[in-house]
Design a protein that fits this description.
The complex is a heterodimer of chains A (501) and B (154). Chain A is an all-alpha fold. Helix content of chain A is 73%, strand content 0%. Chain A has 23 helices and no strands. The longest helix of chain A has 34 residues. Chain A starts with a helix and ends in a 9-residue tail after the last helix. The C terminus of chain A is likely disordered. Chain B is mainly alpha-helical and 154 residues long. Helices cover 66% and strands 3% of the residues of chain B. Chain B is built from five helices and two strands. A two-stranded antiparallel sheet of chain B has the order 1-2. The mean pLDDT of chain B is 86. Chains A and B meet through helix 9, helix 10, helix 19, helix 20 and helix 21 of A and strand 1, helix 1, helix 2, helix 3 and helix 4 of B.
């Protein structure tokens, strides 16, 4: 109990509350501006959190991402341009509602059900993470090896596009992770005599490059048209929300549950949760024909899903050190920097910090109501800031941020290289998330593989003899084989596989 | 920039094989069958295999178009080069010129290229440069180089 009190003391410190408020405003801004994503917000925050103690550093990221995912709904509803990819699924629907004169209703629904979804995901996080941590204490290198491999596998197969390209992305990430001498043999690999590469590539410049610099390059190459005309005046957004909750309780619950689960799966985050949720909502709706014409049902369900996914992603991140999405992949790096190494022992050694993270999650979601209301009211001005001004500022911010981690110009070069790489990858249909996941988890995968192989003394059977390891291993192998099995099944039933390209 | 899948596959196949060949030169760990090369070799083989499959599946694509650039106007392709060039300029110049001058030129150049109204460029660049300096140098204690302004450093 004293740990909980200590956690409250840590969070309700005036300086920490100030950080939460500032990052909330930052998150709302980033989310509301099209082209800037919640992941980018997190990457840009890493250098800022550098000087902070663990709790405000984590609070900063939790708050900013929660706000950004909600705020992405605002330009989606008003201009038909999603503020973040997580709002893309229901952007057309929301815009159709605005055109039907229901801007207040859809913006209010976006806000209220984001809060509901966020609180639901947080509750699941708070209740399941400590229980899972108990179980994880029993895990040996065999379980961890399979768990990491299963996580990476999910990342490949859930990512949009061809799984083959996802595999390439993942392998590139794993390869980048091998650079440096921090490996079981302590042999400097792929350093080519460079001192700067000895300790491996720093995660932060790579992340900033892949998530922020690539976005600026994309903007420079294909500048989008100037924003449309803005609808006049937004009235009372909370009117009628209670009625919606009474009318669609099942949808809210389904969206929240699905969002949390997808968030917890490695590699899939808020955007995929929203797409799947919107699809399910239409499928199970009593009035599927209304979807696409300005119907609030799908907006409610997927709006709840994307915010609950944020909290869900923290479950494997905190318990196993396996990120649930790109945002937690960055957060894990920050946790290591702050000495809060993720894993089950975190719950034993630093319970007050974990409780503080939980409290921040609740606080951020509750704070979303008043701040979100302000953001909607201020949307008109925020959306007027031209991207031609924003993008150079973001790029300079990236440069200074990448430099700040080690005060090394080398990191600016690394950031640039990975920014170009990410731009080229995305333009050619290679997803970015598996690369980041491979980069974050590569060391852990190799460490557990080598430890297990030494323990097993050359027998591969040992990877399956422990019950949990065996189950995880079989699950992983089945997912890898699933495309082959599916193909054979399709052939047998005489269906010709349709190529998408 | 979109590359033909066959070309991408070929590049990946070559890259994967180079990784494998290079990783084979890593010394074995004494007394253990698992050396530092094992993991990179497995990854390299994986990349090469994916490259081969990609080459095979891309064979039906139009061979005459090895790559295309999505920019609609040459100016936009130039803009992308400018973004990259500006970053290189910053990395090379910041120690000599200092943060103030480099950041100002960095911003002003990009504002100009992206079509910000002329009379706003200089004031905006000054305000943002000073703002970032306060945030990172004064608040976060990042040692941004002073360069030409060494004399007035605070």
């Amino acid at each position: 109990m004293s740990h909980v009190l200590e956690a409250f003391r840590l969070v309700f410190d005036p300086a920490v509350l100030g950080v939460i408020l500032a990052s909330a405003l930052f998150g709302l801004f980033v989310g509301a501006v099209p082209g800037l994503t919640a992941t980018m917000a997190t990457a840009l925050l890493v250098p800022v959190t550098f000087m902070m103690s663990p709790v405000p550093a984590i609070a900063c990221m939790v708050t900013a991402t929660a706000m950004a995912i909600f705020a992405g709904d605002i330009p989606g509803a008003l201009l038909r341009i999603p503020g973040t990819p997580a709002s893309a699924a229901y952007c057309d629907e929301a815009y159709a509602m605005t055109r039907n004169g229901q801007a207040e209703l859809v913006l209010g629904a976006g806000l209220v059900f984001s809060v509901v979804g966020g609180l639901f995901g947080t509750t699941v996080l708070v209740t399941t993470a400590p229980v899972l941590a108990e179980v994880a204490l029993q895990f040996s290198s065999f379980e961890y090896f399979w768990l990491v491999l299963l996580g990476l596998t999910c990342a490949v197969f859930i990512a949009p596009g061809r799984p083959l390209k996802g595999v390439v992305s993942l392998l590139l990430g794993l390869l980048i992770a091998t650079v440096g001498f921090e490996n079981p043999a302590a042999y400097p690999r792929f350093t080519f005599g460079s001192e700067a590469l000895m300790s491996g590539l720093q995660l932060t410049p790579v992340m900033i490059g892949m998530f922020a610099v690539s976005e600026v390059i994309r903007y420079a190459v294909s500048r989008t048209a100037p924003l449309d005309e803005f609808p006049q005046g937004i009235g009372r957004i909370f009117r009628g929300q209670g009625e919606l909750l009474r009318k669609y309780p099942l949808q809210v619950l389904r969206g929240s549950v699905l969002g949390t689960a997808i968030g917890a799966l490695p590699g899939a985050g808020a955007d995929i949760a929203a797409w799947i949720s919107y699809g399910l909502s239409k499928r199970f709706s009593r009035t599927p024909e209304k979807f696409g014409t300005g119907h609030v049902e799908g907006v409610i369900e997927s709006g709840a899903a994307n915010n609950s996914a944020l909290a869900g992603a923290w479950i494997p991140a905190l318990v196993f050190g396996i990120p649930g999405d790109s945002i937690t992949a960055i957060v894990i790096g920050v946790l290591y920097m702050k000495g809060m190494n993720p894993g089950p022992t975190l719950f034993i050694e630093n319970p007050q910090n974990i409780y503080a993270v939980f409290i921040v999650f609740f606080l951020a979601n509750l704070l979303m109501l008043p701040l979100g209301w302000i953001a909607i009211k201020a949307a008109k001005n925020v959306l007027r800031v031209p991207r031609s001004v924003l993008m150079p500022i973001i790029l300079l911010f990236c440069v200074v941020g990448a430099f700040a981690i080690n005060n090394a110009v080398f990191d600016i070069g690394a950031m640039l290289v990975f920014g170009i790489l990410a731009y080229l990858m995305e333009a050619n249909g290679f997803p970015i998330a598996p690369t980041i996941l491979g980069l974050v988890l590569g060391g852990m995968l190799e460490q557990n593989l080598v430890t297990s192989m030494i323990k097993a003394d050359g027998s591969f059977g040992a990877f399956f003899t422990r019950p949990i390891a065996g189950a995880l291993g079989i699950a992983t192998i089945l997912i890898w084989l699933s495309p082959l099995i599916l193909r054979r099944f399709r052939r047998r039933t005489g269906l010709r596989e349709q190529t998408t390209e | 920039m979109r590359l033909n899948d066959t070309l991408t596959g070929l590049l990946l196949l070559g890259f994967g094989l180079v990784v494998v060949l290079y990783a084979r030169t890593f010394p074995a760990t004494p007394g253990s069958s698992i050396g530092p090369g094992l993991f990179p070799i497995v990854i390299g083989l994986g990349i090469a295999a994916c490259g081969a499959v990609l080459m095979w599946s891309g064979r039906k694509q139009n061979f005459l178009r090895w790559f295309e650039f999505e920019a609609r106007q040459p100016r936009m392709a130039l803009n992308a080069a400018l973004v990259i060039g500006t970053l290189i300029f910053y990395a090379l110049a910041v120690d000599e010129l200092g943060f103030f001058v480099t950041a100002f030129l960095f911003l002003a150049g990009l504002f100009l290229a992206f079509g910000v109204t002329r009379r706003w460029i200089a004031p905006l660049a000054v305000v943002v440069t000073l703002g970032l300096h306060v945030a990172f140098y004064s608040l976060l204690h990042v040692p941004l180089p002073w360069g030409w302004f060494e004399g007035i450093a605070w």
